[in-house]
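Our collaborator T.R. sent over the components below with a one-line note: 'Predict the complex.' Nothing else. No constraints on interfaces, no templates requested, no preferences about which chain binds where. So this is a plain run: every listed entity goes in together, and whatever single assembly comes back becomes the starting point for the next discussion.
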Amino acid sequence: SQQGEEDPQALSIQEGENATMNCSYKTSINNLQWYRQNSGRGLVHLILIRSNEREKHSGRLRVTLDTSKKSSSLLITASRAADTASYFCATDASGGAQKLVFGQGTRLTINP
Amino acid sequence: EAGVAQSPRYKIIEKRQSVAFWCNPISGHATLYWYQQILGQGPKLLIQFQNNGVVDDSQLPKDRFSAERLKGVDSTLKIQPAKLEDSAVYLCASSARGPRTGELFFGEGSRLTVL
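Returned assembly:
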């Protein structure tokens, strides 16, 4: 079963604007990861945030994690046409087997 | 560094036929994963290997799907017989350890169409 649920399912913005995607999950986690998938391609890792971290940055990406609300957000600043892709959060639940469970994704479209 | 290699990229078969997908992970990566991604959905883990042992195959339809990782390196995923609902992209990924410690590296995927 899918652990993470992304919101919104689809997002369309103008180039230069910021894009925010949210992920909610159900059980306690060890870490949460964000991936990008361009159409017809494999997934590419963007950022990993551990359960004891609240915020991480990588270039134009900012990820926050609120374990009390079981939610995370991915912010892409100053969006570019090349950011058009699907974005997935994935969680490694604490306890049990080490496995990464993906959400359904947010389809992001950047309009020039 | 070479990435995760998968083949074939595309495969079209009739239902009840069989198909096999091959994956060669990044050199030295102990953990190998097979995910199934149906159009418009997120990837679903089918099976996870640690070296040549199975860590998790709880979502693998074992009546028709099988996978092996001989010698702890490359891996093959087989479907026999295929059903219409098996139409999907089969993604292989590898990691140096496991998801608890780091990122997964994905191949380009093998797109299966079952007619």
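Summary for T.R.: Chain A touches chain B at residues 2, 4, 30-31, 33, 35, 41-45, 48, 88, 90, 92, 97-105 (CB under 8 Å).
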